[in-house]
Amino acid sequence: MLELLQKVEGMSILELGVGSGYLAKCLADSGACVTGIDGSSEMVSIARDRLGPSADLHVHDLNCPMTFLPASSFDIIISSLTFHYIEDWEMLLQECHRLLKPNGRLVFSVHHPFADIELAGTTNYFSKACVSEKWGENVTVTFYRRSLTEMTTALRKASFVIHGVIEPTPVTAAKDVDPRVFDKLSRIPWFILFDAKAV
């Protein structure tokens, strides 16, 4: 995602799902003015430790409008692996369009719909599904699987033009970390990334 964004110096960027603040810190270090939102107060606290006490960070549920942010405030909105936790993309994408300046960019990644179909317990690729997945012993996460058609249609309806759709593969260095996962992700698309412009 950072490679896709390229030069961001002087730009105002909103990160939805800021998490621990890793991407936000990279962008801030490159000269961008970054605002971050996350639904977890714990993650926002970690991000604030990374970015500094004056960082513009907010705890907010992305299922609700971001009324505390004024319209046409950002050059770019980014989101890494967050949108699939949101059931209603219509509202979220309308908010993204409202918050972007004219011709602003929305760059986001989600689970690849092909990768999640087995977890969804369905053989119908085109059916939207609520999926629960267990992480470790005590954590269960819930997200929504959508077809590629549903994703692109939602973007179009919110007045976005898609300029790029990327199915990323792992970098070569990842092979040394976990050869099995590297091999799997080199053959099966696990994530998908959209680069869209507000019109």
Question: How would you summarize what this structure contains?
Answer:
The protein has helices at residues 2-5, 22-29, 41-51, 89-99, 113-116, 148-157, 174-177, 179-187, and strands spanning 12-16, 33-38, 56-59, 74-80, 100-111, 129-135, 139-145, 160-166, 191-198. It is of the alpha/beta class.
Distance between the termini: 22 Å
The count of helical stretches stands at 8
Strand order of the largest sheet: 3-2-1-4-5-9-8
Count the beta strands: 9
Output the structural class: alpha/beta
- The shape is globular
Strand content: 25-35%
Descriptive terms for the model:
single chain, 199 residues, alpha/beta, 7-stranded mixed sheet, two-stranded antiparallel sheet, 8 helices, 9 strands, 31% helix
Question: What does this molecule look like?
Answer:
31% of the residues lie in helices and 32% in strands. The chain is built from eight helices and nine strands. It has helices at 2-5, 22-29, 41-51, 89-99, 113-116, 148-157, 174-177, 179-187, and strands spanning 12-16, 33-38, 56-59, 74-80, 100-111, 129-135, 139-145, 160-166, 191-198. A seven-stranded mixed sheet has the order 3-2-1-4-5-9-8, with helices on both faces. A hairpin with a 3-residue loop joins strand 6 (129-135) and strand 7 (139-145). It is globular, with a radius of gyration of 17 Å. The two termini are 22 Å apart.
